[in-house]
Every structure is written in C-alpha cells, then in structure tokens.
Amino acid sequence: MVMEQFGGTVLSFKMNTITSNFSLTSKDIARAANVSQATVSRVLSGNPNVLAETRDRVLAVVRQLNYRPNGMARAMRTNRTGNIGVVVSRLLNPLYPEMLQNLGQGLTEAGLRMMVWNTNETDEGAAASAVRESLVDGVIMTTATALSTPLYEAVMLNAPVVLIHRVVDGWPCDQVTSDNAKGAADVADYVVQADRKRIGLIEGAPLASTIRARQTSFRTRLDQLKRPLDPSLSIRVDSFSHKTGFDAASYLLDLARPPDVLFCVNDVIALGARDAARARGVDVPGKLWIIGYDDIEMASWPAFDLTTVRQPLKQMAQKAVTLLCERIAGTERKHATICLPNELVIRGSTGGRSLEC
C-alpha cells in the first residue's frame, strides 16, 4: 500500500498488480489515481484543462510509482510522437518570439509539444529531416520563402506542414497569413488623406511574401491616388535591424529635401528611423511622420509611440494549430489559405491623427 497526503487528504492505492518486472503504462496510473487514461495524458502533457485536485492526485501517483512516460513505445503504438516542429529565424525581431509564445500556448492546449528550430531562412534542412524521419508529427513554418527547398520536399511527401505569417504561392499545404497588401494600402490612404507632400519608404528585399506585399501594395495604392512614390525618397535595407533603420532614415533625412513621412515595412526599422530623427532634432510628428508595420510591443512604448499596422498574431496561431491538428488526424480536404485582416493603429508618431480627419 502506498500513501501520500495532499490537499488535506490522504491518497492510498494498492500495488498488488505492479511488480518490479511490470512495465508501467498510463493505464496503470489512471487506475491507481481513479481517473481516465485521457486525463492522465492531459496532466502529463501540461494541458491546463484539468481540475487542480485531479492534477494533484495524478501527479502524486506518478511520483510514488516513479513513472516515466515511454515516448518511443507510445510513438510505435500510435504512430505519433506528440511533437510539433516550429521553424523560425530572425529571433532578434520581437515579432517572432511573440508568435512562438502564441503557437506554444495553442499546441499545449492541444496536448502537443513544441520543438523549435532557429534556422537560416533558406535552409530548413533540420526540419525537413525531422519530418522524413518521423521525429515530429508536423511542422509549422513561420519564415518560409520560395527558396525553402528542403521543406518543400517534405511538403511534397504529404507531411503535415502549415505555413504561418509568410506564404508561398503554389505550395500544396495549409497557409495562414494576414492581409499585408490591404494594411499597406491603408497606410497609403492615410498619408495621402493627411496631405503629406514628400512620402518616403524604407523597404527590404522582396523574398518574403510579407515584405513583398507591403511595399508593392504601398506603391500601387499611391499610384492609384495620383501620388506616385518619388524614387529618391525610397531606400532598401539588406536586413531588418535598429541599425539599418537608423542608417536608412539618416540618409533620407539628410537630403536637401527630406521626406515629411516615412513608411517602414516593419517596426524594427521604424524604431531605428525614430531614433535617427531624434538624433537630428527632427520633430516627430511636427516635421516628420513615421509609420511601421507589425505592432510589436516596443511600438507602444512612450519613447516611440509608433503608428503601425497590427497583425492578429494570436488568431493566426490558433488557425495554424487547428489546421495542423486536422491534418495530423487525417482530415481530407483541399489545402486552405487563410488571410486575416490587419488594423492600422494610430499613435503619437503621426500626431494621433485618425483616418477620418
């Protein structure tokens, strides 16, 4: 007889069916704790949807029996590992840690474990190998591009793969993104409506679908509004960092006729642009408006107070996890491409002036 006290009560259960030669399973834990096997699985996977008293009782049994889940045996029995690979890069951009947090929460709630690969955007070989070797049940890719060849090969093996944030046209897999084109067009409408005279743009390489959509749509919408972008007020950075944003904005602000508004295709370079203006004594928003994209947490800090376009990261993560779980479960349907709306968030870097003004 084993006894353990918790929560003011004493838990006891018989050990007569368990011997040193017996390999413990979750069924044994469930029987000893007087709960279902599914409840044991939820407790061991960290699923929050379990009553505290029940979790305590299950964990007490686990401790007393020194139970260790046999992941390899479970994988052989169910043909599932319970592991999901999430591929990221550019972790210095606060957008991606926030995305990982949302994905991790969604996967935990689904009873799955997240394995993270921080990799080069054009080399997802580790993730592709894990799929081929059945080390993971599926992959969520946050930074896919048309050059993600190893991962594409995994997709063609009909492995469960979901792209989130960035999408790649023609890939036969589920994809979740936000409406980057509409978000950038809203920025163009906003600055033209505000009668900004010299519109500047800090853009990036168009490899990623997000960046390509933002800068292409911004230019197209300005053309439609009869306010085409002056090429002399556009500059491309080779990477997204505070320094590249600072340097690019410094170049534009040092022109004889500098811009009176800067649209930056992500928030990180916009924060650098804001500091470049500060270093030159340029009044923001009096002389210069600055607008970013993504609405990372720092964008709302009083030191930056950045007008930006917000992506619905939590909803995107929820959709991605749902789609992946459906694929893992064997759901047969056409591949989905889900595009969620973005929101222009007005702050002090544009004087708090709304679109209706």
Structural class: alpha/beta
Question: Roughly how many Å apart are the termini?
Answer: 76 Å
DSSP helix count?
A: 12
What is the radius of gyration computed over CA atoms, rounded to a whole number of angstroms?
26 Å
Notable traits:
14 strands, 357 residues, 39% helix, 4-stranded parallel beta sheet, 12 helices, alpha/beta, 6-stranded parallel beta sheet, single chain, disordered N terminus
Q: Can you give a write-up of this model?
A:
- This protein has a 6-stranded parallel β-sheet with strand order 4-3-5-6-7-13, with helices on both faces. A 4-stranded parallel β-sheet has the order 9-8-10-11, sandwiched between helices. Strands 1-2 form a two-stranded antiparallel sheet.
- Helix 8 packs parallel to helix 9.
- The chain is built from 12 helices and 14 strands.
- It is elongated, with a radius of gyration of 26 Å.
- The protein has helices at residues 26-33, 37-45, 52-65, 71-78, 95-109, 125-132, 149-156, 180-193, 209-224, 242-253, 267-279, 313-328; strands at 2-6, 9-13, 83-88, 113-118, 138-141, 161-164, 174-178, 199-204, 234-237, 261-264, 289-291, 308-310, 337-340, 343-345.
- 39% of the residues lie in helices and 17% in strands.
- With 357 residues, it is an alpha/beta fold.
- Mean pLDDT is 85; it is low at 1-10 and 12-22.
